[in-house]
C-alpha cells in the first residue's frame, strides 16, 4: 500500500472522475426517494494542492488548475463545489456536500493515515460511516445498500498488477448482491490491452447494462504514461450517455493538448 492520492489530486483524471461523480449523484437524486452511496476506496477526503506531494508533482496545474476560472457550462457545478470545499476535495467530500437530509454515505479506506483523516472529518456526521475495511471484501459485506437506491463508486489505486482482475471480480460480486445499484468504476488507460481484457471479463460475467465513458489525451501507445481514463458504469441512469458526453468534451477542450488520438467516447459494453 504505497499509493498516496495526494500526489495526483486534482489532475485530469481526478477532474474526469469527480465531474462524472457529481452528475451521477445528481441523476440518482432526480427521484425524491433517499439514496445511499458507497465509496469503496475513499482516500483522505481532501488534499492541499499548495503543499507536500501535490505541490511537488504539480499534476493539478494541468487539471483543476485549468478549470477554476470561467469553467465551461457542463463543468460549472463540479468546479463550483471545488471552490466551495477548498482545493482540493476528494470523492467523499464531494458526495457528502450533495447528500439530501435522508441520503447517506459509507466510505472504506485501508491506509491508516488516510482513514484517520477521513474519520476525523466525519466524526460528528450521522449521515456518513467511515470503515477501515478492504474494498473488495466490503463489496460482498455492505451490499445491497440500505436504502436500496444507490451508487457504488470504485476507485482503486492500480498499484497491484492484478487490479483490473480484482475490479472485474469485485463488480461481479457487487452486482450479484445489488442488481439495481449503479456502479461506477474508474480505470486508467495507459495502453489498450488491459482495458480490453477488463471489458471482456465484465462481459463474460454476464453483467447487463454497461457503458464505459472514456477520455483520451492521446493515443494510448506508451504504457508508462497515463494517456487517458475511463469510468465504467453499470445500470447508468437515464440520459447518462447524452448528458455526460458534454462533460468529457469540455474536459478535453480545456485539458487536452491537441495530441494525435485525443478524444472522448461512450462505449456500450452490454445492453439492458
Ligand atoms: C485513487 S485513491 C482514492 C481517491 C478518492 N476516491 C477520491 O476520488 O478522492 C485510492 C485509495 O484506495 C485506498 N486503498 C487501496 N487499496 C484498498 C483496499 N483494498 N480497500 C480500501 N482502500 C484501499 C488507498 O489507500 C487510496 O487512498
Categorize the overall geometry: globular
Mean pLDDT over the residues: 96
Distance between the termini: 37 Å
Cross-sheet strand order for the largest sheet:
3-2-1-4-5-7-6-8
Q: What radius of gyration results from the CA coordinates?
A: 17 Å
Work out the helicity level.
Answer: 25-40%
Unreliable parts = none
The count of helical stretches stands at 9
Element-level helix/strand string: HEHHHEHEHEHEHEEHE
> Could you tell me the number of beta strands?
8
Largest sheet: 8 strands, mixed
- Bound ligands: S-adenosylmethionine
Structural category:
alpha/beta
Q: Which percent range describes the beta-strand content?
A: 15-25%
List keywords for this structure.
alpha/beta, eight-stranded mixed beta sheet, 18% strand
Task: Describe this protein's structure.
The chain has nine helices and eight strands. The N and C termini lie far apart (37 Å). The chain has an eight-stranded mixed β-sheet with strand order 3-2-1-4-5-7-6-8, sandwiched between helices. It is of the alpha/beta class and 272 residues long. The structure holds S-adenosylmethionine. S-adenosylmethionine (SAM) binds at residues 1, 3, 5, 17, 41-43, 90-91, 108-111, 114, 134-136, 155, 157. S-adenosylmethionine is lined by residues 1, 3, 5, 17, 41-43, 90-91, 108-111, 114, 134-136, 155, 157.
Amino acid at each position: 500500500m504505497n499509493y498516496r492520492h495526494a500526489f495526483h489530486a486534482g489532475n485530469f483524471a481526478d477532474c474526469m472522475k469527480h465531474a462524472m461523480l457529481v452528475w451521477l449523484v445528481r441523476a440518482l437524486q432526480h427521484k425524491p426517494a433517499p439514496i445511499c452511496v458507497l465509496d469503496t476506496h475513499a482516500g483522505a477526503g481532501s488534499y492541499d494542492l499548495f503543499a507536500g506531494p501535490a505541490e511537488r508533482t504539480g499534476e493539478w496545474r494541468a487539471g483543476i488548475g485549468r478549470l477554476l476560472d470561467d469553467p465551461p457550462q457542463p463543468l460549472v457545478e463540479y468546479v463550483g463545489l471545488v471552490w466551495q470545499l477548498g482545493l482540493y476535495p476528494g470523492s467523499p467530500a464531494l458526495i457528502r456536500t450533495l447528500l439530501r437530509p435522508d441520503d447517506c454515505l459509507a466510505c472504506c479506506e485501508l491506509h491508516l493515515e488516510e482513514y484517520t483523516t477521513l474519520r476525523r472529518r466525519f466524526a460528528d456526521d450521522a449521515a456518513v460511516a467511515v470503515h477501515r475495511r478492504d474494498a473488495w471484501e466490503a463489496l460482498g459485506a455492505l451490499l445491497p445498500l440500505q436504502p436500496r437506491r444507490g451508487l457504488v463508486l470504485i476507485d482503486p489505486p492500480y498499484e497491484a498488477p492484478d487490479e483490473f482482475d480484482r475490479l472485474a471480480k469485485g463488480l461481479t460480486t457487487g452486482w450479484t448482491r445489488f442488481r439495481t445499484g449503479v456502479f461506477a468504476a474508474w480505470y486508467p488507460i495507459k495502453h489498450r490491452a488491459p482495458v480490453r481484457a477488463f471489458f471482456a471479463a465484465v462481459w463474460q460475467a454476464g453483467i447487463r447494462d454497461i457503458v464505459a465513458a472514456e477520455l483520451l489525451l492521446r493515443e494510448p501507445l506508451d504504457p508508462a504514461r497515463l494517456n487517458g481514463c475511463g469510468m465504467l458504469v453499470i445500470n447508468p441512469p437515464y440520459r447518462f450517455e447524452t448528458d455526460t458526453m458534454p462533460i468529457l468534451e469540455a474536459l478535453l477542450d480545456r485539458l487536452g493538448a491537441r495530441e494525435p488520438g485525443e478524444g472522448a467516447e461512450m462505449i456500450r459494453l452490454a445492453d439492458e
